[in-house]
Amino acid sequence: MISPKHILLSTLVFSCVAAGVSAQASTLSGLSGVSGFHSTASMYTQFIAEHLQKADVPGAIVGIWQSGRPFYLQAFGTANPAEKTAMRVRMNMPIGQLSTAFTVRAVLELAKADKIQLSAPVSRYVSGVPDGEHMTVADLAQMRSGLVDYTQQTAYLDAIKKNPEARLLPDQLLHYSFTHPLLFKPGSRFDYSSTNTILLGLIIEKVTGKPLSRVITEQVLQPNRLSDTTFSTSFADPFLQVRGYTRNNAAQTLQPVAWNPSQFWAAGAMTATASDLRNWARINANLTGFKHILAAYPQSSAPGQTKTSVQYRWGSFVNHGWVGNASRQAGFESIAIYTPKSKDTIVILLNSEAMDKGVPLAASLAQRLSRFISPHAIYQADGQP
Question: Where is the Beta-lactamase-related domain (predicted)?
Answer without folding.
Answer: 46-357
